[in-house]
Design goal:
The complex is a heterodimer of chains A (about 270) and B (about 270). Chain A is of the alpha/beta class and about 270 residues long. Chain A has helices spanning about 45-50, 75-80, 100-110, 115-130, 145-155, 175-190, 200-210, 225-230, 235-240, 250-260, and strands spanning about 5-15, 20-30, 35-40, 60-65, 65-70, 85, 160-165, 195-200, 210-215, 220-225. In chain A, about 40% of the residues lie in helices and about 25% in strands. Chain B has one domain (about 5-265). Chain B has helices spanning about 5-35, 45-55, 60-80, 90-130, 130-140, 145-180, 185-195, 200-225, 230-265. Classes of the chains: A alpha/beta (about 270), B mainly alpha (about 270). The interface between A and B is medium-sized, with 22 and 14 residues.
Chain lengths: ~270, ~270
């Protein structure tokens, strides 16, 4: 197998007593779409923040294109970040700038292209996500789906090798979410980008991902191809796939607590 | 916790805060050349000009009114005492010297801290909450360079200008008082005023205003960058930006005044 573009080894993160990630190993291959699945609080956002270099690992290593992001120089980190586009959950567009200026920002700051070239590139990126006519609008004037698409346009402004998505379909209706899925597939096919998606939407994950990784309570329990993932017999995966709820309230403990509150002690039933 | 632990913990926290502030100050200073016109990246100075307008021009009416009132109050208060010694023309010296050396920079700093310090922290705090700061970092753009540096450069220009305006308006208010009280005309007042101050006083006022501008910008931005959580934290950061920067401004004022005093005597 070729060397993975992103390689996470033994990543462990704890906040105080609480262990968020437990010895996670994950390889992401060049050109694949990997969906990182998991319930709320399973640590998937934490992995993502480590992969994009926002957090430094407490223990373990994160290699991006063979470079350890914990030990590299500021210059190398900058190069890694240039090769990576991130679309945040809340889209994180700069509210003081128009959509156009948002997409232009990385081009203006990190390249020495002339203004007309920047304008053309910005239009191409916006047109690719279907926002060619919305460049002059401000983020507040966009709908949820348009915001996400503008965030994708900004993330791809510098033609990154790796595209990282935090919850692309969160807060979107199914039609708009499906549009976004198509967009991600388009980027994968057209530019051969490696795409990492954090999501809890099974439908969208199955539509776009080549491989699925499942996190449970901070541990990576499986990384598998789509087909074998569906056929999995692991109860934690089955629970996720079949949408089986956890028992939120243990009736025993509720009864016990109510009895305490009512001042009933002993075994009166 | 034992009392000693509480004291030690508080001391460490404050030291860490000052350490963070110093680190941010240095990266802010290092980023300044990159945003200056001609030296830095093209188009960068535009943000600075916008900030100058927000920090300086928009604050001018308030600074002018506050300083004029302050100058008039100082004149009235000192006149009632000085009258007993028949030395009412000393009112001119008091108003002019007090404002060039001390009250001009201080009043300006308090107005700017309340108007701009709080807005810096709210703006940056909101950017932290909406992941905009994270987005900048993942785009390999330094938030200090893009967000803080224009504000810092703008404040370094705007606050001294405001301070000069503050002293000017207080002086005019003093002139108004002397005209009403003793029918002293403006040219005569200004001649007295010019005799009262030396260049050193103006220099001292400007040094102070530069230091105050630095404190307000860096404390305001620091509070913003430190925001964790939701909208409520943004509100709290705005409050503590004003409280902490006002406190540090007065503390720095004491330090600078004492330093000039000691230099004067030696």
């Amino acid at each position: 197998m070729a060397t993975p573009i992103i390689s996470v080894r033994g990543l462990t993160v704890s906040y105080g007593e609480h262990r968020v990630l437990n010895n996670v190993d994950l390889d992401i291959q060049r050109g694949e779409v990997l969906a990182l699945l998991g319930g709320s609080g399973s640590g998937k956002s934490t992995i993502l923040r480590h992969i994009i270099g926002l957090e430094r690992p407490q223990s373990g290593t994160v290699l991006v294109r063979g470079v350890d992001i914990n030990r590299c120089s500021a210059q190398e980190l900058k190069a890694i970040r240039r090769g990576m586009g991130v679309a945040f959950q809340g889209s994180a567009l700069f509210s003081s700038m128009s959509v156009e200026e948002n997409v232009e920002l990385p081009l203006r700051e990190l390249t020495t292209l002339a203004d007309p070239v920047i304008e053309i590139m910005t239009y191409i990126k916006l047109a690719a996500v279907g926002l060619g006519e919305a460049g002059k609008l401000f983020p507040q004037e966009l709908s949820g789906g348009m915001k996400k698409r503008a965030a994708v346009a900004r993330a791809t402004a510098l033609d990154p090798e790796i595209l990282v998505f935090d919850e692309p379909s969160a807060g979107l209706d199914p039609i708009v979410a499906a549009e976004l899925d198509e967009l991600i597939l388009f980027f994968k096919r057209a530019f051969h980008m490696t795409v990492v998606i954090v999501t809890h939407e099974m439908a969208s994950a199955f539509r776009i991902a080549d491989r699925l990784a499942m996190l449970h309570n901070g541990s990576l329990i499986t990384v598998e191809e789509k087909e074998s993932f569906v056929a999995s017999t692991d109860p934690r995966i089955r629970q996720f796939l079949d949408r089986v709820p956890n028992r939120i309230a243990e009736s025993e403990s509720v009864q016990h607590h109510l009895r305490e509150l009512a001042g009933i002690t002993g075994e009166q039933q | 916790m034992k009392p000693l632990e509480i004291i030690g913990d508080g001391a460490i926290q404050r030291l860490a805060y000052m350490g963070g502030l110093t680190a941010q100050f240095w990266s802010g200073v290092r980023a300044l050349p990159r945003i200056m016109p001609f030296l830095g990246r093209r188009g960068r100075w535009r943000t600075t000009v916008k900030q100058m307008y927000a920090i300086g021009v928009e604050a001018l009416p308030m600074v002018a009114i506050v300083s004029a009132c302050g100058g008039f109050i100082l004149a009235i208060q000192s006149a009632s005492e000085l009258k007993r010694f028949g030395a009412i023309q000393l009112v001119i010296d008091i108003v002019v010297i007090a404002f060039t050396r001390e009250l001009g920079p201080l009043l300006t700093a308090i107005v700017v801290s309340g108007r701009s310090g709080s807005s810096f922290s709210a703006e940056i705090g909101t950017m932290v909450v909406t992941e905009e700061i994270d987005a900048l970092r993942t785009m390999a753009i330094d938030p200090v360079e893009l967000v803080l540096a224009p504000k810092y450069l703008a404040a370094l220009v705007a606050v001294p200008c405001l301070t000069i305006m503050s002293s000017a308006f207080a002086t005019l208010a003093g002139a108004g008082f002397m005209f009403l009280n003793r029918s002293m005309t403006l040219p005569i007042f200004l001649r007295y005023a010019a005799e009262a101050i030396v260049l050193r006083d103006i220099f001292m006022g400007l040094v102070k205003s530069l230091v105050f501008a630095t404190i307000i910008v860096h404390v305001g931005c620091m509070e913003g960058f430190r925001v964790k959580g939701g909208p409520e934290a943004v509100g709290r950061s705005a409050t503590s930006a004003v409280v902490k920067s006002t406190f540090l401004v007065i503390f720095a004022d004491l330090f600078i005044t004492a330093m000039f005093y000691i230099l004067d005597r030696s």
